[in-house]
Predict the 3D structure of the following.
Amino acid sequence: MRYSKAFIPTLKETPSDADTISLKLMLRAGLIRKLSAGIYEWLPLGLKVLKNVERIIREEMDKIGGQELLLPAILPKELWEETGRWNIYGKELCRIKDRAGREFCLGPTHEEIITDIVRRDVRSYKQLPLMLYQFQTKFRDEIRPRFGVMRAKEFLMKDAYSFHATEEDAENYYKIVYGAYSKICERCGFKFRAVEATTGAIGGSFSDEFMVIADTGEEEIVSCECGYGANVEKAECLKQEVGSRKSEVEKPLEEIHTPDMKTVKDVGKFLNEKPEKFIKTLIYLADEKTVMVLVRGDCEINEAKLKGFLKCNELVLADAQTVEKISGAPVGFAGPIRLPSTVYRLPIFADYSVENIINGISGANKKDYHLKNINIGRDYKPTEIADLRKIKKGALCPRCKKHELKFSRGIEVGHTFKLGTKYSQAMNATFLDEKGQKIFFIMGCYGIGVSRIVAAAIEQSHDESGIIWNESLAPYKAIIIPISYEGKIKDACDRIYEKLSQKYDVLLDDRDERAGVKFKDADLLGIPVRITVSEKTLKENKAEIKERSKNSVNLFDIEKVLDIVI
């Protein structure tokens, strides 16, 4: 492509509302333009990168037996009602009606649709395993779109779904896809880590996120040199042995007047006690059922863990009115004992961190009062004790129990799920096994964000001058820059261009611009190889070659330049 004919509308100034490095550089380099909040137009340069990502993913999916199809973006309400997700998915689901009043959604994911296809057309175990995948525009009505194309209302995704006759086969294939996703990340040039994650609205028994390591990443992850990794929502916290409690004598309960002191910090200062002595009490509505949750005063509840533990679809903190109704006191004074008789059977769930608190402090369920010397077992008995807190810096790895966890940030580009029979049971999707019995399909689900990969690549690889593309993703392999596009320089550049164009996408900067402008644009666009021809280099029949990722510039014979780049 000749630059003079290419549509590459670069910007000198960064739009003021660009909130990430990738968005700034994608706008400045002319990859995308913003149409509305969370909605972007992909311009020719950006689309070329998208197609390169798509090609890599398609090749790896085909290698493991995937078959590509294309599903509708508009999905009928009826299928989503079969799984119950029409009401569960929430406000992110873009809902529409046709002229007859029938309800549909713009697909954020396609589990129901693919399961419907398979239940209609796959009858026997002999047709399994089966993996189907697609590249499709997805829609999610984000409450606050941000991070450019990484959290947009409309985005390009590859989603794949596998169907199996046995758990063993599903487990083995999950490992195969895991390997394919790792290969995709490697081919994209990423420094990445696969970590355990929560399953969210997709559901299933287990999932892994593929995280591109970047200081600007939207998610925090933990990892250990033993190989363990998880996002902070999923990260397990070690349970201390109850026997490790310090030998402290249990004291009698004592009620303390704490006027207007509602926080651990305020009461701790008043009583001269550390946060570790406190039992923080929170009241939640889990699918509208009230539960009390306890955690140590220096810790925080992990709502993703709590939601998974309670197996609820919706989890929200109770409002002040509900808290007072349940505890008999305003917010800040609730505790696990001396609850009103009206809530005698209120479920109380405690985090492991609470088990070892001796002579603890909590609200007295009475305005302006707290209780000292609360002890588990003697004064209250939780319904259940579990891992419900957020991981903290300094925590030991829950697997090897030796090394301190390392915290870093990452960008999720892929997510794999073990779905089991979640969707096949809900939709009565069965096949006949070897004995002729009806069996529910065992499923896996595997998503990877095509547009997210583009942004993640920029977040991880850029400098003050612009993008630094990995060769496999770059819109052009090389850019040829004539210092002045005329005479012998023009002839040499045309010769290099014609030769390289036989095999690669190459950009020839034939514009009537100063050399400095051309160099700046080449760096901004991030093209891996820059070939510069000038009167000075031609005197020796040479050209300069500079790799975008390196500072050094080398001279090569023009004929050898062709061989070097190829």
